[in-house]
Amino acid sequence: MKILRLLPFIGLILAGLSFPVFSAWPAWGKMNVLATTTDLAALARAVGGERVEVTSLTSGLQDVHFVDPKPSLIHQARRADALILVGADLEAGWLPPLLGSARNGKILPGAPGHVDTSKAVKLLDAPGAGVDRSQGDVHPQGNPHHWLDPINAVAAARLIEARFARIDPGGRSYFKGQADDFERTIEKRLPEWQARLAPFKGRRVLTYHRSWDYFALRFGLVVAGELEPKPGIPPSAAHLARLAQKIKDERISILIKEGHYETQSARFLAERTGLRIVELPLSVGGAPGVETYERLMDVLTETLRGAFQGAGR
Ligand SMILES: [Zn+2]
User: Fold this and answer.
1) How many domains does the chain have?
2) CA-derived radius of gyration, the chain
C-alpha cells in the first residue's frame, strides 16, 4: 500500500531527471513562486517581499481538496522556481497530476523548491492516533488545515524563509529580516485575537468540515462535531438527525461553515434547533478585504466574537 502511494511521486521524480533539479539563482530576476493556496501566497509575499513574484493556484473561495489541474495552472507550474503547498494530502487529488504534466524539476518532491509546509508543524489526527481512516476520508495523513493557527503560520513562514535562502542565497539576510518581521507581527497581534474570544473559552461549536480544529485549539473553542460524517463525505439524513439531538443536549449555538459548502444541511439544523450559521472565510481572499494573513485573523476573531455575543449562550 505504501509503495502504491509512492508510485506517482516516483514517476514525477523520473520525469524531473531530464531537467535541472537545482541551479543558482540569477541576480537579475525575481524568484517565481507558486503557492497552492492564498494563505501560503500571503506568507510567501511576507517573507519574499521585493525578491519574489507570487501567484496562488486557487482563489481563497475554493475547496482546495478538489481543484481542476487545468492547462493554465500547468503553465504556471512550468515557470515556477518554488512551489509552496499545504501538504498532508490536502492537494493529493490534483497536485501530483499537475506536477507530472508541468515536468519542472525545480518544484518536484525532494527539490529545494518543493516547500511542503505540513512538515513544519505538528499535525492533528496524525496517522496512528486511532482515527478511523475508512474509505472516502480526505484527511488520511492527518488534518491538513494547519494554517488557521497563527503559530503554525509562523512555522510555515520560517520553512519558506529557509527554502527561499537556498534558492536565492544572495537574499538570505533579507528573507530572515522579513520572516522576523512577520513573526514579530504575529506575536504582537495574537494576544489581541485571543482576548477577543477569551470570554467564550470552552464554547462548543459545530463545523461543516474538519477545518477549524487548529483555530479552535489556539483560541480555546471546542469542536463538538462536524456536519460531514467524515472529512469529504456529505451529510446524511441519519447523521443530521443525530446532530440535531446533540445540539439540543449540549446547548451548541454556533455552526462554522465555509462559503463553498452547501447550505441546505445547515439550514435544516438551524430550523430545528435555533443553531446560528456563521459563514467564515477559510483563507485569505475568502471574503472582501481579507488580503493578508493578519487581516484573515482579524476577520475570523471579530466575526466569531459578534456571533457568540449574538447567540447569547
Ligand atoms: Zn479538509
Assistant:
1) 2
2) 20
Residue 58 CA to ligand 1 centre (angstroms):
15
Q: What is the CATH number of the domain that holds 175?
A: 3.40.50.1980
Domain assignment present for 122: yes
Choosing from 189, 211, 242, the residue where a domain stops is 189
- Whether residue 172 is contained in a domain is answered as yes
Q: What are phi and psi of 54, to 5 degrees?
A: -115, 135
pTM of the model: 0.89
Q: How far, in Å, is the centroid of ligand 1 from the Cα of 66?
A: 10
Q: How far is the CA of 300 from the centre of ligand 1 (A)?
A: 18
Supply the DSSP symbol for 57. S
Q: Is 246 helix (H, G, I), strand (E, B) or coil?
A: helix
The alpha carbon of 200 and the centre of ligand 1 are apart by a number of angstroms equal to: 25
Same domain, yes or no: 165 and 119: yes
What is the CA(293)–ligand 1 centre distance, in A? 19
Residue pLDDT, tens place only, 220-275: 999 999 999 999 999 999 999 999 999 999 999 999 999 999 999 999 999 999 99
Å from CA of 90 to ligand 1 middle: 7
**What is the Cα 216 distance to its own chain's centre?**
14
